[in-house]
Amino acid sequence: MFKKLFGMFSNDLAIDLGTANTLVLVKGQGISINEPSVVAIQTGKNGVQHILAVGQEAKDMVGKTPSGITAIRPMKDGVIADFNITEKMIRFFIEKSHKRKRFFSPRIIICVPYGLTQVERKAVREAAVNAGARSVYLIEEPMAAAIGAGLSVKEPNGNLIVDIGGGTTEIGVISLGGLVVSKSIRVAGDKIDSAIAEYIKKKFNLLIGERTAEDIKIKIGTAIPLTEELTATVSGRDQVEGTLISVEVDSEHIREAMKEPLREIGEALKNILEQTPPDLAGDIVLNGICLTGGGALIRGLDKYLSDIVKLPVYIAEDPLLAVARGTGKALDEIDILQQMAYEE
Questions:
Q1: In a shared domain, residues 157 and 288
Q2: Residues 6+ apart with CB under 8 A from 209
């Protein structure tokens, strides 16, 4: 009966509310929105704030706004850092996904990091309800990533997923539709970008912004030595002279810059393996470890982690969309929704 009623609401949504990007899937239609989790705010003389832009348009303003305009990332380390702005961002994406301002309040399932506290979970739910949701379900990221990666999560078989997003890295051992062992660390894409910016500052006396650091990571970032190292030109402000300069950096520099956050991810993975029950550990030896999230695209990261844990590591197909697709499948399959998500 519940399944039939659930299917009546064609505007139900699945939201991957990420620190770096937000993806929205409409039930039965697939991904309708994939944009940065950024909001541009203009503050008037009377202190009243107005939203100028949301998503990609707002991200294009990061580091380039004049006085009175601020580009904000309301999600930090996988949690809500600015409740009011997050609520407005969710409302914008809901309305954009339906291409109209007024609609029947949808049911929404939102993906959240495993390590969220009850207070943080309540904040996510309230933001979605205030943005127009009729009811809100939460599903934890390791489970959503595993579903989206096509792992057999409902079988009595151990699978290990590592999802490296913008704010958090989620690691989970899954069997029989549940998380047996899981861990969430706030070391992921953002921390890697910060480490790159700090390294460039110390090594070259060059000040760069977070967007530039992210671009460098994408262009030449690598977790392991390459046969032929990559190079890129980086522009910024000399912190000694104050002049604008450009320097050439190579992938060896960026590998050194990323060393510490990647080490922390590797240590967290080892910790999870140490806690895994022996029978499930045997399954993981056979099945390997699946990588998802934007961080999975760092060159050689699969081999880097494989060398640390001495197990096969592979990258899921289309790793950037694994969490969003898994959250969407939880909408389509009510048994997964009831078993793995919960309504507060």
A1: yes
A2: 62, 63, 197, 236
Reference 306, options 266, 259, 272; nearest CA is: 266
Identify whether residues 86 and 26 lie together within a single domain.
yes
pLDDT in tens, 5-46: 444 444 788 999 888 899 999 888 888 899 999 999 887 777
Question: What is the number of structural domains in the chain?
Answer: 3
Are residues 126 and 8 part of one domain?
A: yes
What's the CATH number where 292 sits? Answer: 3.30.420.40
Q: Are residues 86 and 107 in the same domain?
A: yes
| pTM attached to this predicted model | 0.87
Same domain, 108 and 65: no
- The C-alpha angle 26, 339, 188, rounded to 5 degrees, equals 65
The burial class, CB within 10 Å (0-12 / 13-18 / 19+), for 45 is exposed
Question: In which domain, by residue range, is 135 found?
Answer: 2-36+77-143+322-343
